[in-house]
Write a structure and sequence with these properties.
By secondary structure, this protein is mostly beta strands. Helices cover 1% and strands 50% of the residues. It is globular, with a radius of gyration of 20 Å. The relative contact order is 0.10.
Length: 342
């Protein structure tokens, strides 16, 4: 059905839920166990281009879009599910490409600018950052309280900027620092829970680089594959021990970050004349999902990885340190709840 066409897929901050912006409204699902928790249909809100949850709270950010929008694409609305109504509306000069929430801030991404507001009571504009054209809607913020780090593309091709969101007073500096991560444009970003690590991938999609956000030094280079690919998603595990990545090749890769000896290396790694290529670390495990189907991935309980795809499929795999990866569950999440009464 056309109304089931998914326009956005996004996990919440602890990966316990994921949200779908759809031509037919929005839906929110619990990941463990898989269950529909909430929906607003098209007659209530029209088609929705973006949904951003705030953990499991009653506040949800919504941006209209698609073919049947009820709300403008340059306006973000906050739905309060406790009050069953919209409680906040912020309008911007151009189309909103992404929204990110913290318990104390809302971040709104436009094509060449990012706005940071206080949230949720009486929002006030705190910071504004200029970016290079950001059509991939790249922007991530660490959810932890100790290190409030905002990551977004830098002005130079292949660079990222790191901004400290604790510095919002007029007397303090909020100038972001830059990391030159790749030679080509950034295609995918992730930041860990504590804001101490950032992962990047370029439009080539062959390498994922992990940097220390304090020293800005490259910690590890991970190889997704030898052929170029479009990366859809990168995510850290909640304890930063692992990283997962999905691409249009239809494979979700899992890498070890703390025990890097678990990652696979090329059998030619000792032949120095082959250069750095064979020294890159390959994933310790992987599993397949529908190819060329946009997919968000995140870590579930224990050593599990969950992938949700825009074709409505849900995949959960459990991996071991030895590199084994076994499917634990498969479902079609869009069909869940359709037979229930709402």
């Amino acid at each position: 059905m056309a109304t089931h066409r998914i326009l956005s897929l996004h996990f919440n901050q602890d990966h316990g839920c994921f949200s779908c912006g759809m031509e037919g409204g929005l839906r929110i699902y619990n990941t463990e166990p898989l269950a529909e928790k909430f929906r607003l249909d098209k007659d209530e809100i029209g088609s929705v281009s973006q949904v951003e949850m705030l953990y499991r709270t009653n506040l949800i950010a919504i941006v209209g879009g698609g073919s049947m929008p009820k709300f403008a694409e340059n306006t973000v609305l906050i739905w309060d599910d406790a009050k069953k109504k919209f409680v906040l509306e912020l309008t911007f000069p151009s189309v909103i490409l992404a929204v990110r929430l913290r318990r104390d801030k809302i971040i709104v991404v436009l094509r060449t600018r990012i706005f940071v507001y206080s949230f949720p009571q009486n929002p006030q504009k705190l910071l504004t950052f200029d970016t290079r054209p950001n059509l991939r809607c790249l922007c991530e913020v660490s959810p932890g309280n100790d290190n409030q780090l905002l990551i977004f593309p830098g002005h130079k091709q292949g660079s990222i900027q790191l901004a400290d969101l604790t510095n919002t007073e007029p007397a303090t500096s909020s100038s972001p620092v830059t990391i030159n991560a790749h030679q080509t444009d950034i295609a995918c970003l992730a930041v860990n829970q504590e804001g101490t690590l950032v992962a990047t991938a370029s439009i080539k999609g062959t390498l994922i680089r992990v940097f220390d956000t304090l020293s800005r030094k490259l910690l590890i280079e991970l190889r997704r594959g030898a052929d170029p690919a479009t990366l859809y998603c990168i995510n850290f595990s909640n304890d930063s021990a692992y990283l997962c990545a999905s691409s249009d090749k239809g494979t979700v890769h899992i890498f070890a970050l703390k025990e890097t000896s678990l990652n696979r290396r090329s059998t030619f790694s000792k032949m120095g004349f082959l250069g750095q290529y064979v020294e890159s670390q390959w994933g310790l495990a992987n599993f397949t999902v529908p190819a060329e189907c946009a997919c968000a991935c995140a870590f579930g309980p224990q050593t599990s990885v969950i992938a949700v795809c825009v074709d409505g499929t849900f995949h959960k795999y459990v991996f071991s340190p030895e590199g084994n990866c076994n499917r634990e569950s498969y479902d079609e999440y869009l069909e869940i709840g359709d037979d229930d009464e709402f």
